[in-house]
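Protocol step 4 of 6: record predicted structures for both targets in the notebook before any analysis. Target 1:
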Amino acid sequence: MIYAFVDGQKRQPERKGERTQCPDCGGTLSAVMPVKNIAHWRHQRGDCDPWSEPEGPWHLGWKEQFDPAFREIGLRDPLSGELHRADILCNDGTPHATVLELQHSSIAEEERVAREAFYRRGRRMFWLVHIHNDQSFLGYGFAFSLDFRREPHSFDGRSYSVMRWMGRSKQFIEKWKRAEAHVFFDMGGRIFHLAQSSLLIGQGRVLAAGEFALSELTPVEFVRAVHGGT
C-alpha cells in the first residue's frame, strides 16, 4: 500500500521505522523506504488484499491525480467477507460510483474476470493498462498497431478507429477485448479507450481476431471520465 493514516492524515511513509495500522484489517504496517522505488507501507503479516501487487512511480503518479479520499479504498463483500482494495474509488454511494484499477504488470484472465465481478457490483469499473517499455514485443506491437486513419466510426459522442494488432501474438488485445469493464491504455502519457465489442456490433461491425477499435483522449479527459464526466 502507498497510503495509510498517520495521526489522521492519509499519506505515504516519511521515515524509516514508522508504523501504523491498516484501515481495512487493523494489521500493523511498517514503512518501507527503498532507494530506487517509492515509499510505501508493508503489512507485517502479509497483505490483507490477495490482489495486491508491487507498485512504483507510475501508480503513484496516477493516484495523485485524485483526491486522497479516493485513493486505495478497501471494499468488503457483506456476504462473503471478501476484501479487496480499489486503487481509486470515486463517488461511492452515487450513480456515478467508479472503481479505477491501475494495471502495470500482466494479469491472468481468471483474475481479470474475478476483479471485474467484484468491483462492478453496483459500480462502474475502469482499467488503466500501462503499455510500457517500447522496446518490448508488447510495446512495439501496440505502437505499430496505431492507425487512426483506418476505418473511423463515431458513437457515444467520440470518434473511434478500427485497427489491426501488429504484434507477435493477438493474446494481449483479445484478452482486453473480452473485458466487461471499460478498458483504457496508457502509452507514454497518451490515453486510449478500447471500444467494447457491443458498441461496434450495434453498428453492424463485428471485430475479427486481432482487430480492435480505439479512441484517443487526454489525461485530463480520462480523469474527468473516472469522476463521472464525459
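Target 2:
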Amino acid sequence: MTAYQQKKANLQEKIANYQADIDKLKNDRKAFSTHICFSALPKEDQFKQLSTQSKYFIDTIKMVAYRAETAMVQILREATSRQDEARMLVKAVYNTEADLVPDETEKTLTVFLHHLPNQSASKSVQQLCKEMTEAETIFPGTNFRLIYKMGSALSPRLPEV
C-alpha cells in the first residue's frame, strides 16, 4: 500500500508540474497580439498591390461566377413558385453539404446534394440538378461527366423528389 501511495504522490506531483507549465504557457500566449499591423511586417513579407492584369483576371473570374449563379437562378425561377427567393435558394445550395462519388467504369462523378430544410426547396433544386446533369459537363482535368442528384451517397436511396 505504501508503494502505491508513493507512486500516486509522484504522479500527482508530475501532474501539478505539468499544470503549472500549461498555465505559464497560456499566460505567455496571452502576451502576444492576435493581429499584426501591415506596417509591422518585414518588407519582404508585405504583399504588393495586384497588377492590372491580375486584377482583370480576378474580375473576369468573378463575372463568370456571377453569370453562372444567375443562370442557376433562372432555372430555379422556372421551377419554383416563389421566384423572388430563387437567388437565396442558390446560395443555400452552395452552403449545403454534398457527397462526391466517382465511378471509374462509367466515367462519372456524381454530386449528391443533401436535402434542403423544406420539401418545396428540395423539389426546386431537383429540377436544377436535372438540368445541370443534362448539360453533360466534364469535370476539369478529368474525363468524368458530372451527374447531380439530391440525397446522400451514404444513405439508402430514397425516391427522388
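Step 5 preliminary note on target 2. The longest strand covers residues 98-103. The CA atoms of residues 45 and 152 lie 44 Å apart.
Proceed to step 6 after PI sign-off.
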